Amino acid sequence: MTSSRVIHRYVKALFDLAVEKEAVEAVHADMRLMAAVCQTSRDFVSMLRSPIIHQDKKTAIVRAIFKKSINPLSMSMTEMIIRKRREPLLPEMAAYFHTAYNNYKNIAQAALHSAVPMDEAQLLQINALVKALSKKSSVDLEKKTDSSLIGGFVLDVGDKRIDASVKNKLQALAQQFAKPLKS
């Protein structure tokens, strides 16, 4: 079974349990915390992926880090994942849980890269555009500044991309000038 199918199955099982136990918000916060730890600590991810470290030791380390800060449901699921030797997939599972949460709450995920920070009026227009593209009721917008865009923005919503950057326009012009002229 491919790792993405395994990730989807474990996340679906955890999400369904969280819905049943009315702990969706708590488990979502736990998975955000776990994803943040995985993003900031290469040592933690290396420990999860190490075939040398025994499952009991991995479980003890995870308990020491998260026991007091996450929901018992999240902890028991994490321990079960380690027992099933799927712990190398924990970072991806934690990140994918956020996507499942957003789908459940009808929230569109979008990434906005702009040359300069956008003001509130521009962000409201971007939010309206994302809602229209995704047909979702609210937006989780990740904003990043990228000066290499020169001007404008790049917006990613699901599998759609709107590239309204000056960099893209200049590249398109360069390609047009590179084509031979027809007589």
List the helices and strands and how they pair.
Elements: H1 3-20, H2 24-40, H3 42-49, H4 55-66, H5 72-83, H6 90-104, E1 107-114, H7 120-134, E2 138-145, E3 153-157, E4 160-163, H8 166-178
Parallel strand pairs: 1-2
Antiparallel strand pairs: 1-3, 3-4
Helix pairs in contact: 1-5, 1-6, 2-6, 4-5
Describe this structure in words.
This protein is of the alpha+beta class and 183 residues long. It folds into 2 domains: 3-103, Peroxidase, domain 1 (Orthogonal Bundle); 108-178, no CATH class. 60% of the residues lie in helices and 14% in strands. The chain contains 8 helices and 4 strands; from the N terminus they run ααααααβαβββα. Strands 2-1-3-4 form a 4-stranded mixed β-sheet. A hairpin with a 2-residue loop joins strand 3 (153-157) and strand 4.
Could you name the key traits of this structure?
single chain; 183 residues; alpha+beta; Peroxidase, domain 1; 2 domains; four-stranded mixed sheet; 8 helices; 4 strands; 14% strand
Describe the structure in brief.
The protein is an alpha+beta fold. About 60% of the residues lie in helices and about 15% in strands.
> What is the general shape?
elongated
Q: The CATH topology of the largest domain, please?
A: Peroxidase, domain 1
* Largest sheet features: 4 strands, mixed
Protein structure class: alpha+beta
Instruction: Specify the CATH homologous superfamily of the largest domain.
Output: N-terminal domain of the delta subunit of the F1F0-ATP synthase
Mean pLDDT: 95
Q: How many β-strand runs?
A: 4
Assign a percent range to the helix content.
55-70%
Tally of domains:
2
CATH architecture of the largest domain: Orthogonal Bundle
Q: Uncertain segments of ≥5 residues (pLDDT<50)?
A: none
- Percentage of β-strand residues: 5-15%
Radius of gyration: 21 Å
Strand order of the largest sheet: 2-1-3-4
Secondary-structure element string: HHHHHHEHEEEH
CATH class of the largest domain reads Mainly Alpha
What is the straight-line distance between the termini? 57 Å
How many helices does DSSP assign?
8
